[in-house]
UniProtKB/TrEMBL annotation:
Family according to the record: Belongs to the enoyl-CoA hydratase/isomerase family.
Pfam families, alphabetized: ECH_1 (PF00378)
Organism: Brevibacillus nitrificans
Key words, A-Z: Lyase
Gene Ontology MF terms: enoyl-CoA hydratase activity
Name the record gives this protein: Enoyl-CoA hydratase
Amino acid sequence: MSYEYITVAREDGVGIVTLNRPKILNALNLKLIDELVTELTNLDKDSEIRTILLTGNEKAFAAGADINEMAEASAIEIMKRDQFAVWDRISLISKPIIGAVSGFALGGGCELMMNCDIVIASETAVIGQPEIKLGVMPGAGGTQRLVRAVGLRKAMEMLLTGDPITAKEALQYGLVNRVVPVEVYYQEALKLAKQIAGQPPLAVQVIKKAAHKADDLPLQEGMDYERNGFYLLLASEDRKEGMQAFLEKRKPRFTGK
């Protein structure tokens, strides 16, 4: 399938999705998000793909929403678009999404980054939610995910001033996993994506879902959910293969069954 605003590649079990509006710093318009969600869903269903890498370019992961689509629209028009319903589908992707982030990750770009399960950032990354400077607020999860990621105090400062933080600060607050030189951020993210792609697919997906439940469930309910996932994986062929390979001191061959 060909797209206007994203490109897609595959490498060693990794589906690579690149935002592709470089002239306007990968500003997120409705069509780009629709294309992105369509392809993420396709990759999620593809048995040959085990992890997904999401990236932009060195100057911008995504500099925010395309304001041209909102500047003249009424509140009722935007409400009828129900544009955030499409965003909600990103959180339903079962395979891990690795973000390779450089340059601007602002507004919707920050919200999209926070939908990734792991983020490798370049030293040039600039991350924030500047919507307040336009008289609005985040609408695709920015207030909710930012508080969960960096804590209430820091999130309030970022949301109410609109000021961005550096990659180093993002690492300090746990918003990204790793900060590396801009020359290698993509390669580091791809290397990590390939490493995870080599793990047993069922275990990867069950672990991802259980970890995300930690944000939603009380501790005991989360523990029960985790145990059920553990018991489920005991029935998989990959569990048998992994343990047998360990005993035989060889590399396991996981099939996702």
